[in-house]
């Protein structure tokens, strides 16, 4: 499998180089992989690659596409096949993609690609992909349902699982996904024929717990890395640590945040077999070494010998209560536009984050974006000081309302259990909107509760929650122009 993944990566690189190296190069690379892997492994990897790429496609659409790709490789990589076979076959595949009744995954960009011709059309179609699923849809069935589906048709069961799982967690590094899917299918095939399936599933699930958690966690962090970029991920990780341990200094936490961002930078797109697990373990050792003596909760998480489990424990820590600290010192104009301007801005936002520990990442991200926008506009302006003074005044007016709104939406969610939170939410909305009827109140409570359960944790889906926050903050702007919207 993992050897296959390296070959699959080579295949994508080969496709990108088609215009430079020629059609024979692409055919040779595909055939090299097909022969090295064998038809079934090649097919498995093709399901995984295309389910990740077209995360919103149906199983039937992926099946059609995979069937065509495998058939093309099988026909054109056979001994004595015509050298023009692969090029002719891939052209036919492109033509089928452009047909009115194409059975392949739908994409808004298909029509634009189909307006092109020849190699340009093929490369354009090959580059199309869906945005990743921000809220994974895969729900693992019960043991009984798994075995029922497996026994009915093992091959169809495996194909459907690969499609559903990899389209839901497609941002996880490929080696992690491959390991996770392989061990899951092995567990099902072993336990569904076991004389004691319940005990078997319990044992196997415990054995694959670390890999399963690694898949979920790396899908989240790599989604965030793709959306945020390295600098904003550094900030996001910094504020997460600051809220878990508000007593720690910027100097203690910033190097750890930079180290985490470097891990994600190296491993999210890596095809090295154990990159994420190895590098995260090394990172966790650094976190434990730096912070254990300062905080009992971190010390408890760092007691175990399994560094990955320690990492999961630290990631799951809720924010600590906010300490009583003097008002955060704002950076001076000359600091914001200096060579270390970005660091000065991060230090100020770090100070805000540890004073408001219930304000989640999705709100803090808005503060980061606003600071970057202001620095971008004002540091290149003719009159930098006037520009910064004006923005500083605007920010001073908006920030208290912004933090109040964030605390209002997420503060109680972190303090109360979900039922008590909804009850308190209904009470506060009734006070704010005494004229609202029971039906409208019920809708508002469900909307706010849905937002809180999805977006008030540090691991919230970035794009989805950013749009929700923008919508809520936009209402607070009363149609005006807000820095923090």
From TrEMBL:
UniProt superkingdom: Eukaryota
Subunit structure as annotated in this protein's UniProt entry: Associates with membrane-bound immunoglobulin on the surface of B-lymphocytes and with IgG Fc receptor on the membranes of T-lymphocytes. Interacts with LRP2; the interaction is required for renal uptake of GC in complex with 25-hydroxyvitamin D3.
Record GO terms (molecular function): actin binding; vitamin D binding; vitamin transmembrane transporter activity
Pfam families: Serum_albumin, VitD-bind_III
Leader peptide range in chain numbering: none
Start and end residues of each Albumin domain: 18-210, 211-397
Segments crossing the lipid bilayer: none
GO cellular component: blood microparticle; cytoplasm
Matching InterPro entries: ALB/AFP/VDB, Serum_albumin-like, Serum_albumin_N, VitD-bd, VitD-bind_III
CDD domains, A to Z: ALBUMIN
Function according to Swiss-Prot or TrEMBL: Involved in vitamin D transport and storage, scavenging of extracellular G-actin, enhancement of the chemotactic activity of C5 alpha for neutrophils in inflammation and macrophage activation.
Places the protein is found: Secreted
Main localization, broad class: secreted
Protein name: Vitamin D-binding protein
Keywords: Actin-binding, Disulfide bond, Repeat, Secreted, Signal, Transport, Vitamin D
SUPFAM superfamilies linked to this entry: Serum albumin-like
């Amino acid at each position: 499998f993992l050897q296959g993944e390296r070959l699959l990566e080579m295949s994508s690189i080969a496709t990108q180089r088609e215009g430079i190296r020629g059609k024979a190069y692409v055919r040779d690379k595909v055939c090299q992989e097909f022969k090295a892997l064998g038809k079934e492994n090649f097919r498995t990897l093709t399901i995984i690659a295309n389910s990740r790429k077209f995360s919103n496609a149906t199983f039937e659409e992926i099946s059609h596409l995979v069937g065509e790709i495998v058939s093309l490789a099988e026909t054109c990589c056979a001994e004595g096949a015509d050298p023009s076979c692969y090029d002719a076959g891939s052209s036919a595949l492109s033509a089928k993609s452009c047909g009115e009744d194409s059975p392949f995954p739908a994409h808004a960009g298909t029509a634009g690609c189909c307006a092109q011709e020849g190699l340009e059309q093929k490369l354009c179609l090959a580059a199309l992909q869906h945005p990743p699923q921000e809220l994974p849809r895969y729900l693992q069935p019960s043991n009984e349902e798994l075995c029922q589906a497996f026994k009915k048709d093992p091959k169809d069961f495996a194909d459907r699982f690969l499609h559903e799982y990899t389209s839901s967690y497609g941002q996880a590094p490929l080696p992690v996904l491959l390991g996770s899917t392989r061990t899951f299918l092995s567990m099902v095939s072993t336990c569904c024929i076991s004389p004691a399936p319940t005990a078997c599933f319990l044992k196997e699930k415990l054995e694959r717990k670390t890999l399963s958690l690694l898949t979920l966690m790396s899908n989240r962090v790599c989604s965030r890395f793709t959306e945020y970029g390295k600098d904003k991920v550094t900030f996001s990780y910094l504020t997460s640590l600051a809220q878990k341990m508000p007593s720690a200094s910027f100097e203690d936490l910033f190097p750890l945040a930079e180290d985490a961002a470097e891990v994600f930078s190296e491993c999210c797109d890596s095809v090295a077999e154990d990159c994420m697990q190895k590098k995260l373990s090394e990172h966790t050792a650094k976190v434990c070494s730096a912070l254990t003596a300062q905080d009992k909760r971190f010390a408890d998480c760092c007691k175990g010998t399994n560094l990955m489990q320690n990492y999961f424990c630290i990631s799951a820590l809720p924010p600590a209560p906010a300490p009583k600290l003097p008002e955060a010192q704002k950076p001076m104009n000359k600091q914001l536009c200096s060579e270390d301007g970005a660091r000065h801005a991060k230090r100020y936002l770090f100070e805000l984050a540890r004073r408001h520990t219930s304000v989640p990442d999705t709100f803090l991200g808005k503060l980061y974006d606003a600071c970057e926008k202001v620095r971008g506009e004002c540091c290149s302006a003719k009159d930098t000081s006037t520009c910064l003074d004006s923005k500083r005044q605007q920010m001073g007016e908006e920030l208290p309302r912004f933090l109040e709104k964030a605390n209002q939406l997420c503060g109680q969610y972190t303090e109360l259990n979900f039922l008590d939170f909804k009850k308190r939410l209904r009470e506060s909305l009734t006070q704010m909107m005494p004229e609202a009827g029971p039906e409208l109140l019920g809708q508002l409570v469900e909307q706010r509760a849905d937002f809180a359960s999805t977006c008030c944790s540090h691991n919230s889906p970035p794009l989805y929650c950013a749009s929700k926050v923008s919508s809520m903050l936009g209402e607070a702007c009363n149609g005006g122009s807000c820095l923090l919207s």
